[in-house]
Amino acid sequence: MKKGIAASKGYAIGKVFIQEHEEIVITEEKVTDIVAEKAKLQKALEASKVQLEAIKAKAEESMGAEKAAVFEAHITLLDDPEFTGAMELEIENNQSNGLKAIADVTNTFVMIFESMDDAYMRERAADIKDVSKRITANFAGKGGVDFAITEANTIVVAHDLTPSDTAQLDRSKVVAFLTNIGGRTSHSAIMARTLEIPAIVGLKDITTTVKNGDIVIVDGIEGIAIINPDEATLDAYEAKREEFLAEQEELKKLISVKTTTKSGKRVEVCGNIGKPEDVHQVLANGGDGVGLFRTEFLYMDRDSAPTEDEQYDSYKYVLEKMQGKQVVIRTLDIGGDKTLPYLPLPEEMNPFLGYRAIRLCLDRKEIFKVQLRALLRASIYGKLAVMFPMISGLEEFVAAKEVVDECKAELKAEGKAYSEDIQWGIMVEIPAAAVYADELAKHVDFFSIGTNDLIQYTLAADRMSEKVSYLYNPMHPAVLRLIKMTIEGAHKHGKWVGMCGEMAGDEAAIPTLVEYGLDEFSMSASSILGAKKIIIDQQ
Ligand code: PEP
Ligand code: MG
């Protein structure tokens, strides 16, 4: 048995197909017949185009036009004179062999794109590598990178899968995939969730642990792969798989159903997102809105903070895609376990109790204002709610709102539009805020309970520590009391309360939260339908 990261839920039982990209050796050798080498390159480009057109058509069918657009971009690259034209010139001017010409031009482009400020442009480097891999394989006569999968119930095992590898998976044959590397948010994992096939990533050495033809059970819920299981295990998982599929089918009926309890209370079930594109999953699963956009992800994996315009684009995108459904965006929550390479933070004994989130933003207003201005400018494109993380008392909320007012005045002077209709709220994730909720509720428009932190602070049990995880209990009576106090405090003043911590999607906790009168639940997109079902069954 191997444990990895559960990337896409579901169960599959099938035969292993190890997908290996053949090693193609690139030499320094010069060519003499330049015309022949250029013709060979041309043929490789044409073959790549034919393959990509086919992949695009298949992707359009299985994943929709929007996801398939990436392959249109790949096709455009094949015709780009700056890219493939440069390869020809490399052969012509330097007598480079075709493979070396492809590699050199690719490296130059990848370097340029990877050093760009714009995150979107940096991500394009992956597309260039992907296209280049295809051209190289075709040039070397390795028949492209397509799978030779003919058998039904195949489990693809690979070191990693590129987006085009994943899109090519024939869903009538491939029932799951397993990779050595990757995390829940790696491209292949995102694609697997879109395709709705179970997947486990980050299995480290699965390509060498299994061999072609092995029977494997993929448990995409627990992130477990069971290799050559016995009959009893096979039977048990076959039953689990059937049950899961029947449940999923049944849940789909709820996509456009409004979530109302038996006693007639309307409850919003929303999705949490970390990247703008995640809104698609929220919509596909019938989410009523976005209950938490963790904006710190926009700041990660880069060398400098995103500019006002970059952030504006991201927020506008989400608001537009949600078409008038509410989007709750949380301001930067950095510090604690989330650090940025370009923002050195002081060494602290207890960083989770230290300089983080709103504390840092109020101290570093120049950083905070960039985000607030971007949020204000984007607000005209939809129904925006903004919340501040780690609020411990009224002063912080008032101070944050003062910075908002400063930004509004600046934008007004610059003649830039913003909406006056934004809701301003706070995360309730510090016990003090929960205890003081009835006072805070007089000043805010809404609360969103962050149970991930609220539980750790209430029970003094570090959310990252294995050793004290037995204490980290969402259903601890003290935690429940704080949640109840928060909801009652808000309702006393006619304000609504959401929950965006993991507890909101915890099927065991949902009935209690409904009973307390929670107005909005926000969770990972794939949990939305399951949560809707439970809520509908409550009084
Ligand atoms: C929380 O604390 O519950 C929360 C939603 O925020 P994060 O997990 O990002 O700290
Ligand atoms: Mg938190």
From TrEMBL:
Enzyme Commission number(s) of this protein: 2.7.3.9
GO molecular function, one term: kinase activity
Catalytic activity from the UniProt record: L-histidyl-[protein] + phosphoenolpyruvate = N(pros)-phospho-L-histidyl-[protein] + pyruvate
PROSITE patterns: PEP_ENZYMES_2, PEP_ENZYMES_PHOS_SITE
UniProt xrefs under PANTHER family: PHOSPHOENOLPYRUVATE-PROTEIN PHOSPHOTRANSFERASE
Physiological role: General (non sugar-specific) component of the phosphoenolpyruvate-dependent sugar phosphotransferase system (sugar PTS). This major carbohydrate active-transport system catalyzes the phosphorylation of incoming sugar substrates concomitantly with their translocation across the cell membrane. Enzyme I transfers the phosphoryl group from phosphoenolpyruvate (PEP) to the phosphoryl carrier protein (HPr).
The protein's name: Phosphoenolpyruvate-protein phosphotransferase
UniProt source species: Clostridium cavendishii DSM 21758
